[in-house]
Amino acid sequence: MYAKSLVTVFLFGLIFSSCNGWSSSIKNLSPDDFQKGIAGANAQLVDVRTPEEYSEKHIAGAVNINVDDANFKKELNALDKGKPLYVYCLAGTRGKKAANEAVKEGFVEVSNLENGINAWLAADKPVVASNGEAPKTGMSFDDYLAHIKNPDKLVLVDFNAVWCGPCKQLKPIVTKQVKENSTKVELFEVDVDKNPKVASTMNITGIPLLILYKQGKEVWRSMGLIDESELAGKLKQFIN
To answer: Can you give the pLDDT of all 240 residues of the chain as single tens digits?
Structure first.
């Protein structure tokens, strides 16, 4: 009886460690390694962002399966689970989510682009747009630095994206506070999709993100939604 129990415990531990091994089998690749991987004959490349993001720019050969869409698992399972799967998003978070879901669904080999298409663009890798036109690369980091160096006003940078729900919720709060302090505060909005080089250089891993600059130096930042009273308090603190 005792020996049988030991065997049961051993088998359970083996199964448990195997399940944990799925997660560790996900490869988070650099742009160079990701590019080499998707060049393989059997590679399946999936852009897990929204259709709007995909349409604006994506890696050539990628199919679009939105990880946050209700049909994600259904569309994912239409792919070949025995072939290598490569996924990417904007900055890496949704890619990791999609990679974990793929492992749960039984995909054998799954790779995620570390830091997403932002890293890909920062490494000067090619992208295409759905309309056939060359994708816009947005402002350079030097352009960004020039914008935040206002000697007379605080500069509040709002990093956002058109697909970001919380960004839309935050926008009227930011707009109102900047308007009420228009003689002392300037608003600078940065769409991370349209300005990937800035997003990558700033290591933007989540939005909405507010960064407040005083004479070109960062004095405060906040990621996610924020109460109007907190934002008003921070502006007042650095205006005085």
So the answer is: 444 444 444 444 443 333 333 344 899 999 999 999 999 999 999 999 999 889 988 999 999 999 999 999 999 999 999 999 999 998 889 999 999 999 999 999 999 999 999 889 888 899 998 876 767 778 989 999 999 999 999 999 999 998 899 999 999 999 999 999 999 999 999 998 888 889 888 988 889 999 999 999 999 999 999 999 999 999 999 997
> Coil, strand or helix: which one is 158?
strand
Residue 89 a catalytic site member: no
How many angstroms separate the Cα of 164 from the Cα of each of 7, 43, 161, 170, 224? 51, 30, 5, 10, 11
Cβ pair 86, 45 in contact under 8 A? yes
- Is 19 designated active site? no
Catalytic residue of the set 167, 192, 210, 211: 167
Q: How far apart are CA 101 and CA 96, in angstroms?
A: 9
Which domains, and CATH codes, for the chain? 18-122 (3.40.250.10), 141-239 (3.40.30.10)
Give me the catalytic one of 29, 164, 173, 198.
164
